[in-house]
Amino acid sequence: MIELDETDRALLRALREDATLATGELGRRLGLSQPAAWRRLKRLTGLGILAGRRLVLDREALGFGVTVFLGIKLATKGRVSLDEFERAAGAIPEVQTIEHVLGLYDYRLRVVARDLSDFERVLRRRIMTLPGAGHVEANVLLSEERLSGPL
What we know:
By secondary structure, the protein is of the alpha+beta class. The protein has helices at residues 6-17, 23-30, 34-46, 82-90, 116-127; strands spanning 66-74, 95-100, 107-113, 133-140. The chain is 36% helix and 20% strand. Strands 2-3-1-4 form a 4-stranded antiparallel β-sheet.
């Protein structure tokens, strides 16, 4: 486990809220100089704690009003490799995440669509034709709250 001091944690919390903050602004917020903030960012990146910054898109504003979580049980594990399934699922633009999980299903996919009829089209034409796709269970997202997690 990597040891972080309170300044490191405060820096990570600030970036979690706004990953676009410049090192000068981060320094001002944390009582550090710009070079000191930059050195800490570089150190955290070098340690693998900061693995990149992401842009969060508003799916609804882009016309994708429906999000569905799919649980997929592979029908033929022996004949279809997991890599083949993941590669085919990753080629579907509406699939936002692919998670290989332990439990009732083999995979959990997050899929976005414009509306329910668009989702049905994606399900029938793309998801159900994935190599090895067997049983599929869908859960429509009603609301979502992002929690910050421990730091």
